[in-house]
Amino acid sequence: MKAVVWHGKEDVRVDNVPDPIIQEPTDAIVRITSTAICGSDLHLYAKLSPLMREGDIIGHEPMGIVEEVGADVEHIAPGDRVVIPFNISCGHCYFCDQGLYSQCENTRDTGKLAETMNLLGRGRGASLFGYTHVYGAVPGGQAEYLRVPQAHFGPIKVPEGPPDERFLYLSDVLPTSWQAVAYADIPEGGTVGVWGLGAIGQMCARIALHLGAGRVIGVDNVPERLAMASRHGVQTVDYSAVDSVRDVIVNLTDGRGVDSAIDAVGMEAGGSLVGSILQSTKLQLDRATALRDSMSAVRRGGTLSLTGVYAGPIQAFPLGDLFDMQIQLRMGQANVRQWVENILPLLNDGDPLGVEDLKSHEMPLDDAPHAYEIFQKKQDGAIKIVLKP
Hints:
By secondary structure, the protein is α/β, with parallel strands linked by helices. 27% of the residues lie in helices and 22% in strands.
């Protein structure tokens, strides 16, 4: 089969690789019909390259048709249309029983590399499809076929009829955004700021409005992202056109700041020369511009929700200021299956979240190298790219 394979920093290729096979009775084989490139895939493309190995198949936002199931898989069958959550969870361990599927005890990578990557000595969470050798080194879904471990629980069966893009984002974008909004604890009619208007930020904004936020302020500097957010009711701020995002947002909120702030950017935020220097000199692993801006613009007693991915420690983290301002902080990988019951009925009833207005590009799988390049460089209005095997 064909698959998108990592060969080195900023070097992905479409290679012919062996077809996957059933290895465990809880496995399934899925023929992929659509698979998206995630913003966190760009971390693999460049920054997290030391955690990759040549030959790794990448991608964690797939859906398709079940081809084969193992003996212990009963809730799906060949011919079913399914979406595959990006995190791999067993559904019955201690953490899964609490809905913390991203912390699954039975799929965590307990190898030495995963353990040493955690500064607290606690290792990493549940395995992820196509995402480094600290998250299980599981072959990913940017391919013609995918072996799905823990298929007795993970795959989400969806109806026939609507286009793939109605359901595809159940793999990551929608549950990640839903959890970010839930963690933000936005008061009814309140104001939330969203830093980063990529796919996750776009859906955070729409979900926040759907769930009762009175106003969403979105921060970015890419014209196409700002335009997309605006047509879905978001008040936008182009950070490249102002001296201080904090001052703009504080002025828009009666001098207090937003009730809730969502950092939907993470480790590779632009906009700060100091952050870039700290990262390039290894004094700081991540660029924290969005994190610092969102912290500085939330009101006292407000909530900060982190859904953008961070990999390491942040220099001069203002813990004392957050304590003084009584800020609540929540974060983490999305527990995909926890939110499916909230989201799937909305997709079945129509498109109230505007999911079919998220894809900016559709390309054949063979064009994946070009897709990664334009996505990384923010060229050609790339917001969300869907590959078709």
